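[recover] target loaded
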């Protein structure tokens, strides 16, 4: 058989989301957020506000995370056809998210430590200037959220209604700027309360609250991306669906089953089938065709030599 004759049996492994529009919008948000971050950090140092400085640091961590998202978009797009990636570049964004989570955890630790020091050694705060910059930061975060909002939950449900295609990069970027907006709001509350009521202690407290927020976000991101990277994020519902679809036909029994994520909302499956009446692998693949999120299926068929009348059910 000539190599050219194999092409009809081959299929794509393009499981990454390649969307130049989302890449451009995320890049725009990186630029906007980066400029605002510099302004807030400088203002926080100049005006003596830990809450404002914490907001700037928090925004800085998200600039790094968003930059990783942009890199992931570009890298996945440029290496879509790279044969070194067995199942494509669908996990590039997940790896970027994991790296962002580690950076967030470090910044949360540093920010919390600085806030505690400020709590015991308060500094003079120039409230009017600090509040103005914090309001600007909040406005920038809300604008950034609107830029990313249109498609952050884009996708469609499959027949089961349980699985959705979504752009992991865009969703992470959207949640990052929302977290930024919340931290900016905390800074404004702390500064206004300190100015009007004399609650100067509230400024470093809000810095601590911001650190806790970042740490919590970091933990959630580490948990979600880590599970995907080690192939442990599979929903039990998919395993049940695959097994039921195969075993509801004829006397088929699934002796071995592996399903793992290869891209946003897309999975690969290896299925070993034992049956008295073996059929071509394509037949068993067709039994799963209604689950579009299972994008890559490999089927291994074993002929059971025992008499059909015997109890040969395999648990």
């Amino acid at each position: 058989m000539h190599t050219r004759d194999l092409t009809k049996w081959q299929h794509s492994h393009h499981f990454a989301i390649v969307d130049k529009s989302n890449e451009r919008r995320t890049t725009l948000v990186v630029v906007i957020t980066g400029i605002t971050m510099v302004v807030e950090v400088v203002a926080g140092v100049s005006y003596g506000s830990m809450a404002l400085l914490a907001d700037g640091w928090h925004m800085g961590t998200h600039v790094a995370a968003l930059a990783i998202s942009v890199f992931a978009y570009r890298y996945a797009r440029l290496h879509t056809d790279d044969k070194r990636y067995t199942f494509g570049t669908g996990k590039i964004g997940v790896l970027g998210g994991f790296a962002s989570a580690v950076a967030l955890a470090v910044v949360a630790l540093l920010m919390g430590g600085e806030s505690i020091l400020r709590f015991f050694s308060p500094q003079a705060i120039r409230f009017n200037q600090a509040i103005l910059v914090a309001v600007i930061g909040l406005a920038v975060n809300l604008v950034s959220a609107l830029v990313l909002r249109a498609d952050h939950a884009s996708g469609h449900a499959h027949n089961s209604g349980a699985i959705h295609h979504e752009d992991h990069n865009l969703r992470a970027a959207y949640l990052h700027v929302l977290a930024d907006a919340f931290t900016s709001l905390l800074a404004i509350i702390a500064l206004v309360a300190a100015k009007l009521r004399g609650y100067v202690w509230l400024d470093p407290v809000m810095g601590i609250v911001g650190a806790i927020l970042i740490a919590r976000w970091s933990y959630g991101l580490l948990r979600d991306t880590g599970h995907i990277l080690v192939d442990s994020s599979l929903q039990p519902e998919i395993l049940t669906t695959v097994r039921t679809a195969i075993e509801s036909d004829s006397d088929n029994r699934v002796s071995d089953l592996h399903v793992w994520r290869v891209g946003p909302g897309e999975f690969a499956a290896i299925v070993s089938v034992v049956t008295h009446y073996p059929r071509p692998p394509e037949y068993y693949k067709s039994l799963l065709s209604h689950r579009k999120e299972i994008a890559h299926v490999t089927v291994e068929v074993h002929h059971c030599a025992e008499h059909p009348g015997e109890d040969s059910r395999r648990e």
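[recover] notes: The beta strands are 253-263, 266-275, 294-303.
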